C-alpha cells in the first residue's frame, strides 16, 4: 500500500544525503516503526512521504498511485495521510471539537464524525474545552483524533511521546496503539526509543546515515541484527575485538565482526553455567548499584575495560566472567 523506491534527499545540493536510495514497502494495516540515531534521516523520510519535502530521486506510491517522484508531486492535503507530531500542534484558539472538525470541514456528517473520534480516544466529554485545559497526554489524543477524522490511508506518528514523562509515555503509548489497532489504519511510527518500537510495531525499519540497514520483524532484530549498529540500538553490545578474543581465548573468523550483548556475559559462572565456553579473569574497578542489580566496570588482564551486570551484592574485587559461543553475534561489516 506504501511503496518507496530509491528515495534520496539532500539539503546541500548533493554534498551530503539526509536520505539515500531508500526502498521499502508497507502492507495495509502494518504498524512499522522507523528507528535510528539522531540525524539518521527518520524525520526527512516521513516529511517526504507526507509531502512536506520534495525528493531529489526516487518515488513514493500510495495505494498504487505515485504521490511523489521527479515529475509528479501530489500536495500534502491531497495525500490522505494523517500526521501526529511531537508538539501537539493543536490550534489554541479553537475548542477540542473545533480542532477535530478542522480537517473535515467539507464532510457531510462532520459533527457526528468528530464526536465519534473524540469517543474513540476517550475524550467524549471534553469537546468544549480548549487545548490548554487538557493534559499533555490528552492533547496528544486530540491530535490523534484530528489525524484519524478524515480516514487517512496512512497515519504517520513522529516522536509523538517525546514531550511526556516516562510513566505517562508508556501508558499513552499503549492507549494510543490500542486505539490505532481498532481502526486498522497503516502506521509509520518514528521513534528513537527502541522499547517503544518493540512494544507496538509489527516491523521495524532501521536507518543509519540516511540508508536502510535492516527492515525486519521486531523479534528478529534483537536475535539477528544485520550489523553492530543495529545490535547496539537494541541493547548494550560489546564488539569482540582482537584483545577480547585473546583475553577469552576465543579465536574468531578474521573476515567478520563479532559482538556479545553485555547481558549475556555471566559473572562468576558456576559449574551449573558450564555452557560458558569462554572464560577470563577480571578486576572490578567500579560498582554502581542500579536498584536490584549492580553494574560492574571491569578491567581484563589484556587491559580491556567492559561493563557487566550482576545481582550479587557481595561480588569480590577479582572475579571470573564468561560467555557461550551461541550468544556471539556475527556480522559481515
Ligand atoms: N531542512 C534541513 N536543512 C538542512 N539539513 C537538514 C534539514 N533537515 C534535516 N537536515 C539534515 O538531514 C539529516 C537527517 O536529519 P533528520 O532530521 O531527518 O534526522 P532524524 O533521524 O529525524 O534525527 P532526530 O532523531 O535528531 O530528529 C541531518 O544531518 C540533518 O542535519
UniProtKB/TrEMBL annotation:
Q: Which UniProt keywords apply?
A: ATP-binding, Cell membrane, Ion transport, Iron, Iron transport, Membrane, Nucleotide-binding, Transport
> Could you tell me the superkingdom of the organism this chain comes from?
Bacteria
Which residues are in coiled coils?
A: none
The segment(s) forming the ABC transporter domain are 2-234
The record's GO CC annotations read: ATP-binding cassette (ABC) transporter complex
Q: Which SUPFAM superfamilies match?
A: MOP-like, P-loop containing nucleoside triphosphate hydrolases
Q: What Gene3D superfamilies is this protein classified in?
A: P-loop containing nucleotide triphosphate hydrolases
Gene Ontology biological process terms in this record = quaternary ammonium group transport
**Taxonomic source organism:** Brumimicrobium glaciale
Q: Does the keyword Iron apply?
A: yes
Pfam families in UniProt:
ABC_tran, TOBE_2
Q: Per its record, what are the GO molecular function terms?
A: ABC-type ferric iron transporter activity; ATP binding; ATP hydrolysis activity
Is Ion transport found in the keyword set?
Answer: yes
Chain segments annotated as transmembrane: none
Protein's name in the database: ABC transporter ATP-binding protein
